[in-house]
Write a structure and sequence with these properties.
Shape: globular
Oligomer: single chain
Bound molecules: pyridoxal-5'-phosphate
Largest sheet: 7 strands, mixed
Number of domains: 3
CATH superfamily of the largest domain: Type I PLP-dependent aspartate aminotransferase-like (Major domain)
Strand content: 15-25%
CATH architecture of the largest domain: 3-Layer(aba) Sandwich
Distance between the termini: 54 Å
Helix content: 25-40%
Amino acid sequence: MTDNKQKKTPFFTKLKQYGQKNVAPFDVPGHKLGKVPNDLLRYTGPKIYELDSNSPIGLDHLNKPVGVIKESEALMAEACNAEKAYFITNGTTIGILAMIMTVCKAKDKILLPRNVHKSVINGLILSGAIPVFMKPNIDTDLGIANGVSLETVQEAIEENPDAKAIFVINPTYFGVISDLKKIAEIAHQNDMSVVVDEAHGAQFYFSEKLPYSAMDAGCDISALSMHKTAGSFTQSSVILCQGERVDHHRLRASLNMLQSTSPSSLLLASLDVARKTMYFQGAKRIEKVLQLAKETRDKLNQIPGIQTFDKDYFINRGSFGFDETKLIIRVSDLGLSGFEVYQMMRKIANVQLELAESHIVLAVITIGTTKQHLDKLVSGFKKLSEKYYKQRDMLEKIEFEYQFPEPYTRPREAYHAPNKVVTLDDAIGEIAAEQVMIYPPGIPILIPGEIISESVINEIKFYMRKGSALQSDLDDNHLRVVDKEIWIKWEGDLDEF
Ligand SMILES: Cc1ncc(COP(=O)(O)O)c(C=O)c1O
């Protein structure tokens, strides 16, 4: 019975019918279902434009669904074993903002790992919540931050019994898993909500061969990027929730505050059909790509200077699990940085990788990945190894301390404080008023409210030297910092922030 229901795609079906009805459209969008010729329309054909409508009669409203969007969201919730699903057309970025604004009012405490995506920091600025950062496990050999241990969570809860919520990244960008079931259990015993960034974990809902999902672990609310790993269009995401702790009025209000009033029907339709495909084909196809991923790991491990990592590696280093659809490839033994390899693989092998860090690159495998793709990846790394292995000095060792900067004040406070622009060198000892990160992965090196240490400045300079995509609100070599001279808060009562 359930299976039959999951064959339906209520929103996509209605949208398709609307485009074929020969309606005279006096509403927006102004291309009027594809009547304005342009290069994109000529390239793709008119169908995409016929599916680009903005809430005509019968197509429901994302900001208060009562019709086909509601039905499609209910099917998504059912497929993911959740009580309720909310479609999002501005990415998990918006999902995270909305989740934080739902669980935290200004000055409520939230426990979270420091290696969060930049949207989480923006969520803190918008909500005014007070972050209590938990230190993630650091893998100094790979140069990445992983999940948080249960002990760290337990300790953070004991020290902050008044916190309203715990925020967990599961999986991390690199696929590392935390013990979500236990985290949910402890959090609930202490009357805290569990909010999950599942941006990289949409596939978990459709295969038992993968780690369990946030909903299966008993978490309260989670945002997942269907577009990253489950086949929908870029920017289409979902919030899933269950249980009594989620205030649906507040969630709806937050989403409506953040989302466009003209959500893309193409993105909504792509969520509908991606859910159907994953529901019926996900498990089988994920099993197949997991096998291909294993074979690829074995082949890559035989290439001199190349190393890959499986679940055992992470479990032996204290993590709870690992999503083996993420292929972490260590390249530093070639004497090359991940940043260099990221560029070279595109040039020499026509392979586009997901991201680079100093010692590794990341390849993301989904049900769209083919054997031919993986063969190309292996042959690219063979070429690199033939050319560089033992031909170059070993990679410059980075002097990261893996100490996150000390927070001085809430991100919101620092963001709104009087500020000034200083050079990187002059920023040492100041309080950051902006975020700095490399993108991807978009994990901030520095966030508003933190005291800027010399080691953070060295880290920023390292990334600049390596030519990685450093992002801040300003040009290179400058930072926006709080102007302490005219900031009343400076030397004020910290309890007040
Ligand atoms: C860990 C993490 N969370 C959230 C996001 C935001 O997701 P989206 O791109 O769907 O807005 C990203 C994006 O890369 C991410 O890596």
